[in-house]
Inverse folding.
């Protein structure tokens, strides 16, 4: 029985030594396979020991006849089992398990080539390199490290030939002015506008479109200054009659004929010739009726006094001076002048004695303030208002009326201070006798 226990202990020690040797060498040590449960010992008093290494927890079964030890290790470890020696054996000390052996390496990296599509409206090839990384972890400290999923940390371009697709624009249009020229014998310009168009095309799928040749679609006239060349004709001639005039102081006509000539010229190469100014080359007399002229003297003037009269019903005179003028004229260009009728140009008044008939108006009235003495035996005064009247009369038949003197028709007392005068005071006492005034 002791031999079997010793054998089990030796196996556990050897297994632990192997695990420690792997850790010391820096190698990843995997958990040993869980041991199978030992065969039940049938000897009396020997406990049946069971183990479960799938949970990394080992337990010692209890025994009523033997004191046993139990060891619980952290998750990820393994358990060693020591079998007791029955009633007569003493259990050995449990073996210490090795430390965890899983080591997390540095993250793995790799470059993964790939291709991405060009943006909309472009064509070509866009090759990229994805720079990826996988992070390691140890789900089981006693197991092998596990590599995580690959994730892209950055991207770099390897080749990018994406180019915008060639787009054919609408045809280009332009207007070109040119001189179409004038007909034979004409000078100037015939400016025309050529309405042209150029079609675009794409030589390849990408790149810029190419403009084709310009083609004239239609034409329109801008201006036409074509004109026949100017040709100057020979000089022109004419005879012009004119009045050469008479000597000073004479009237009539001295008719002469001027023989004139005008030369033509061309101001420009085209257009109509221009006739120059007429110049007199010679003259001949046609008729002469000059005679001494009639000369009208300045207008004559005079002043005539007359009675312009007074208004109806008035008397007197209104003497006015009429300033008159007579204009001279010549009935014919020759002979003596004739004096015209006298006409009044203005008037001025000499005297005016016109008077309207005299009409006496109604009497005039007025109020005059004054004072009156008090009745006899009273002193003071009375404030009164005198109500007065003045009548009008006509001294002559014509002229202004005259006013008579004012007469008082009534008197109104407005206030009075009249009152009876008091007796005079006694004379002052010159001498007192026994308290009384002594009057000698």
């Amino acid at each position: 029985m002791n031999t079997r226990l010793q054998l089990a202990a030796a196996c556990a020690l050897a297994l632990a030594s192997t695990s420690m040797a792997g850790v010391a060498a820096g190698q990843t040590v995997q958990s040993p396979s869980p041991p199978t449960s030992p065969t039940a010992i049938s000897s009396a008093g020997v406990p049946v020991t069971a183990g479960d290494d799938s949970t990394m927890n080992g337990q010692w079964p209890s025994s009523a006849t033997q004191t046993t030890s139990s060891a619980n290790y952290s998750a990820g470890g393994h358990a060693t089992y020591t079998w007791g020696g029955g009633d007569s054996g003493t259990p050995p000390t449990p073996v210490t398990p090795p430390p965890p052996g899983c080591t997390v390496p540095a993250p793995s990296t790799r470059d993964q080539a790939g291709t991405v599509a060009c943006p909309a409206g472009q064509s070509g090839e866009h090759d990229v390199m994805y720079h990826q990384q996988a992070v390691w972890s140890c789900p089981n400290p006693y197991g092998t490290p596990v590599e995580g999923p690959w994730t892209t940390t950055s991207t770099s371009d390897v080749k990018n030939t994406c180019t915008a697709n060639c787009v054919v624009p609408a045809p280009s249009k332009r207007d070109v002015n040119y001189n179409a020229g004038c007909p034979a014998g004409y000078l100037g310009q015939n400016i025309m506008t050529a309405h042209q168009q150029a079609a675009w095309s794409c030589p390849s799928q990408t790149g810029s479109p190419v403009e084709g040749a310009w083609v004239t679609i239609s034409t329109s006239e801008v201006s036409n200054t074509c004109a026949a060349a100017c040709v100057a004709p020979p000089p022109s001639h004419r005879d012009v009659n004119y009045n050469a005039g008479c000597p000073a102081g004479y009237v009539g006509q001295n008719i002469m004929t001027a023989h004139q000539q005008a030369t033509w010229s061309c101001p420009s190469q085209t257009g109509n010739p221009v006739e120059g100014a007429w110049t007199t080359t010679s003259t001949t007399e046609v008729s002469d009726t000059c005679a001494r002229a009639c000369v009208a003297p300045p207008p004559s003037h005079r002043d005539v006094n007359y009675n312009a009269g007074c208004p109806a019903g008035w008397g007197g005179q209104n003497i006015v001076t009429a300033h008159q003028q007579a204009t001279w004229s010549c009935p014919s260009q020759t002979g003596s002048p004739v004096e015209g009728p006298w006409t009044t140009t203005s008037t001025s008044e000499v005297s005016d004695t016109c008077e309207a008939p005299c009409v006496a108006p109604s009497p005039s009235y007025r109020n005059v303030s004054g004072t009156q003495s008090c009745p006899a035996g009273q002193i003071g005064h009375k404030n009164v208002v005198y109500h007065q009247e003045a009548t009008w009369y006509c001294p002559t038949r014509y002229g202004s009326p005259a006013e008579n003197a004012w007469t008082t028709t009534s008197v109104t007392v407005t206030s009075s201070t009249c009152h009876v005068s008091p007796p005079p005071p006694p004379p002052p006492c010159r001498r007192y006798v026994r308290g009384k005034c002594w009057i000698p």
Remarks:
- The chain has six domains: 1-101, 108-164, 172-228, 236-292, 300-352, 364-420.
